[in-house]
Design a protein that fits this description.
There is one protein chain. The protein is α/β, with parallel strands linked by helices. It has four domains: 113 residues, Cobalt-precorrin-4 Transmethylase, domain 1 (3-Layer(aba) Sandwich), CATH 3.40.1010.10; 122 residues, Tetrapyrrole methylase, C-terminal domain (Methyltransferase, Cobalt-precorrin-4 Transmethylase, Domain 2, 2-Layer Sandwich); 129 residues, Rossmann fold (3-Layer(aba) Sandwich), CATH 3.40.50.10090; 125 residues, Rossmann fold (3-Layer(aba) Sandwich). A five-stranded parallel β-sheet has the order 3-2-6-1-7, sandwiched between helices. A five-stranded mixed β-sheet has the order 8-9-12-10-11, covered by helices on one side. A four-stranded parallel β-sheet has the order 14-13-21-22, sandwiched between helices. Helix 13 packs parallel to helix 14 and helix 16 runs parallel beside helix 18.
Length: 498
């Protein structure tokens, strides 16, 4: 038996350590906090999950209760993970929990995490030290145990940089105390939801920062390094924000749109969300048939994350059912990442993220008589299953989800109006259906919409040539990247617009 005290990092699931991920995959029990990202928890899909989150004024479990859970689970399970936001030994009470476990003679190991005190400022370009400006750093809690008779924090720090964690609830009180020792005009930066969607950066001074409507979770950085950050941000924005003031339409399904929205926003643009396609997970007979035949599969092909999500939702033990010798192929890095989150690895992914490219890389394999499962939408092109049948494969085609016209037409109608009024700068398309559905929803405005997009006034962008072919059916010129990903598509668009 062993209990691992594991740091989950500052929030972004990609900033958790590889060692932490490996331990989570082996865990029997995971005891996790409020700030542990859900995507990180997915690495422990087979473990018992116990939530013990705490926030100011609302403790799901007391520390004493958490300690007892650790002892009970530690004594009765082979591998227990105590997952904490940031680093377990930086205001994470990791030391206390380690001592409690060791007193019960339960082995403990520590896997450090990227503490938000350093990781969050770093991701936005704020150096907590800087030659000639700041040679010392103090990290302090802004929220002490309210049962203490006297505060241990005296605020008379000589450090050049002060970083306050968990201090938003007492921001006014804390800044007032610091102003007894530092000038009221000392620069301050507050980062809300650091490394996560919705991140917000607010700057001010010790005197003014409390007037900026700050909301937790957030951390506070005080000192001259904030002025260095402002200079860095100004220079970086000139390079990065190529879409400043531009309005970009995103037509892909709502659940897949966040990556595009984040990139557009980061580049200074405004994302106009108008999904022309809606994905609905469904439990079909064909999907259940694939589930039943999982042990007989020689190959399994995923063409999108939606097919993975649906299969594992309605056949939750699919991984255990799957033939261990089965080859798994995917189209695109996003699908590959989604596969990894389910605990599987891709054996094959083409360089070009199309069905045609996948058929090309599968051609050298002996597929005669092989059984290949393909969960997908039945609205997809027949290129892949037909191509594999010509190679002699036996195909189990399973309907995992439906691709339909959106039930709420208002965002698309707003997009059509914006195109006709030339109120947007670019429209992005990520599949043939996103194109065809737009024109179908335009109804009697279809010809006007075609005419508007056939001009050079609005940039039309496709993720790749297959989507581009759909645009050509309407005589619309488009630009597309060499690599068929959302990031590369938007990068190509930014180059065209800047």
């Amino acid at each position: 038996m062993v209990v691992y005290l594991v740091g989950a990092g500052p929030g972004d699931p990609e900033l958790v350590t590889l060692k932490a991920v490996n331990v989570l995959k082996k865990a029997d029990v995971v005891i996790y906090d409020r700030l542990a990202n859900e995507k990180i928890l997915k690495n422990a899909s087979g473990a018992e999950m116990i939530y013990v989150g705490k926030k100011a004024g609302a403790h799901h479990k007391t520390q004493e209760e958490i300690n007892q859970i650790l002892i009970d689970k530690g004594k009765n399970h082979k591998l227990v993970v105590r997952l904490k936001g940031g680093d377990p030994f930086v205001f994470g009470r990791g030391g206390e929990e380690m001592m409690v476990l060791l007193e019960e003679e339960i082995p403990v190991e520590v896997i450090p995490g990227v503490t938000s005190a350093i990781g969050v400022p770093g991701t936005v370009g704020l150096p907590v030290t800087h030659r000639g400006v700041a040679t010392s750093v103090t990290v302090v809690t802004g929220h002490e145990d309210p049962t203490k008779s006297e505060s241990q924090v005296k605020w008379d720090f000589n450090a050049d940089t002060i970083i306050i964690l968990m201090g938003i609830g007492k921001l006014e009180e804390n800044t007032r105390e610091i102003m007894k020792y530092k000038h009221p005009e000392t620069p301050v930066c507050v980062i809300e939801k650091g490394t996560l969607p919705g991140e917000r950066i607010v700057t001010g001074t010790l005197e003014t920062i409390t007037q900026k409507n700050i909301k937790p979770p957030a951390l506070v950085i005080i000192g001259p390094v904030v002025d260095i950050y402002k200079k860095i941000a100004q220079k970086r924005d000139k390079i990065i924000k190529r879409l400043e003031g531009k309005v970009i339409a995103v037509t892909r399904p709502l659940e897949r749109a966040q990556e595009a929205v984040d990139i557009i926003t980061r580049e200074g643009g405004v994302a106009l969300l108008a999904p022309t396609l809606e994905l609905t997970m469904i439990r079909t007979d064909s999907l259940m048939e694939l589930c039943r035949h999982a042990s007989e599969l020689d190959w399994l092909i995923f063409t999108s994350p939606a097919s993975l999500d649906s299969l594992f939702r309605y056949c939750d033990d699919f991984k255990n059912r799957l033939n261990p010798e089965c080859f798994v192929a995917v189209i695109g890095p996003r699908t590959k990442r989604a596969l990894q989150e389910k605990g599987l690895e891709a054996d094959l992914m083409p360089e070009d993220y199309t069905a045609e490219a996948l058929l090309e890389v599968m051609a050298p394999y002996e597929l005669e008589g092989k059984t290949i499962g393909i969960p997908r939408t039945f609205s997809a092109r027949d290129v892949l299953p037909e191509g594999l049948r010509k190679m002699g494969a036996q195909i189990i085609l399973a309907e995992a989800y439906q691709s339909t016209i959106p039930h709420d037409p208002q965002p698309v109608q707003k997009l059509i109006k914006s195109i006709l009024n030339e109120d947007i700068d670019a429209v992005t398309f990520t599949s043939p259906l996103t194109v065809h559905n737009l024109f179908e929803m335009a109804a009697d405005k279809k010809k006007d919409l075609m005419s508007a997009l056939q001009t050079d006034k609005i940039k039309v962008v496709a993720i790749g040539p297959i989507t581009g072919n759909a645009l050509e059916e309407y005589d619309i010129k488009y630009v597309a990247p060499d690599k068929y990903t959302v990031e590369e598509m938007l990068n190509k668009m930014a180059e065209e617009l800047s």
